[in-house]
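Table S5 (text form). Sequence records supplied for joint modeling of the two-component complex.
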Amino acid sequence: MEELIKKLKSQIIEELALEEFTPDDINADDPLFGDGLGLDSIDALSLVVVLDRIYGIQIEDPEAGKEILYSIKTIAEHIQKHQS
Amino acid sequence: MEEKIDAGLPAFLSSVYKTSGLKYPKFYKMDLLSKLGFMTSTFLVESGALLKPYDPDKVAIVVSNSESSLETDHNYYNTISEPDHYYPNPALFVYTLPNLLIGEISIKYALKGESTFFVSRQPDFETLCTYCSWLLQNTDTQAVMTGWIDLDPLHNYESILFLIEKQDQPARQENAWPFTSNTMTTLYRAIN
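The corresponding structure-token record, covering 276 residues in total, follows.
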């Protein structure tokens, strides 16, 4: 899980052009939207595309999407569940 | 800011941003055309200082170019051109209109005045001059940021912005040039 979280942080920084952040700046438990990383709705769409493109995971239910995309950790947990 | 350069433009603009001392993380999310316009506007108004005398609701932005948002259009197309690798990029899609660069400048300086984007094959300073004059004479516009910000898919670019102020405005900058299409053309040619 730790390895996946580390990889996810780098991928999200690159894909969402968060150039002012390093992986160490991002706490895996912090919310990605709102007060956390401050991502916006376009970032949310980009995350959905990234999960599909890199991990083959499609998020079709918006309510489930909110829970999955809550933090780096929740995304990692969902990926792990999908891969097992 | 005017230059014809190569594929190093993204790195160049990032470097300009970093050395400017600005703290504006959204810069990194902009497409290249918006970054070009954003940094040019930053130099023009010296981080907003020149706009301070004006009501942000009454500052207009009128920009023109020849390539519209073609550079970003190309990049976006690359994300949807292969049926087996069809992943539309939302972050690119939102920039597939040239007036997004006006939006970025407006957000940075909280400007809510008139905004217009013209696309013409060559810089048409006569039209820009006529339109800006009309805004200043017939609306409550107090100042206009206008110019030519052009970028093609090979990253050839030209970027020049002018701040147009009314002659009777107390806030008008000293040593200002007269606002005519000839002045704009002369200054444009001077940096070409």
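Note: The interface with chain B takes residues 16-20, 42-43, 45-46, 49, 52-53 of chain A (CB under 8 Å).
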